[in-house]
Amino acid sequence: MEKSPYGLSFSYQENDPFCWAIENDCVSEFVRFCGQEILTLEDVLNNKYQKEELKTLSDPCKYATALNLSKVDEENFKTARDFLKENFDENICDTFDLMWAYSNLDRVKILMREKKQDKNKQKIKK
Fold first, then answer.
1. Domain check: are 95 and 58 in the same one?
2. Could you tell me how many helices (H) and strands (E) the chain has, helices first?
3. 15 in helix, strand or coil?
4. Which residues pair with 9 in a beta bridge?
5. With left for phi above 0 and alpha for psi between -120 and 50, is residue 101 left, alpha or beta?
6. d(C-alpha 80, C-alpha 69), whole Å
7. Are residues 111 and 72 in the same domain?
């Protein structure tokens, strides 16, 4: 077996020459990640979370939360987006924005209005 720089091992087998076998530590890390609890859209919309717990979330869990929240409808968009802006860093919020508005012109317009309001609020604070 040959090691790849990504922690994967390439396995040459007679019947399946392109079979990739993931090492045990990669599998266990992936299983651990999948087993973590993340905030759902319902948790955020119904305020069913504790601020202290948010501080302990790993970056992958924060991104998973943003992905989960990107399912929000237009009516609750501002609530989900405000939650992310208040609790997570700008990169995660930008990821949410992109996923939520992806390929939807109406949503892009809503997002652009929100971003304009954000800039206006920042000017007022200064």
1. yes
2. 7, 3
3. coil
4. 3, 21
5. alpha
6. 6
7. yes
- What is the rounded distance in angstroms from the CA atom of residue 114 to the CA atom of residue 36? 31
d(Cα 38, Cα 64) in Å, to the nearest integer? 7
**Cα–Cα distance between 52 and 30 in angstroms, integer?**
25
Give the total number of structural domains in the chain: 2
The CA distances from residue 118 to 62, 68, 82, 125, in Å, are 21, 23, 10, 11
Phi-psi sector, 47: left (phi>0), alpha (psi -120 to 50), beta: left
92 token code pair: 């995660």
> For the segment 28-83, what is each residue's pLDDT rounded down to a tens digit?
777 777 777 778 999 999 999 999 989 888 888 899 999 999 999 999 999 999 99
State whether 20 and 52 are in the same domain. no
Domain that holds residue 49: 37-125
Element (H, E) at 9: strand 8-11
Helix (H) or strand (E) holding 1, with range, is none
Assigned token pair, 124: 């007022």
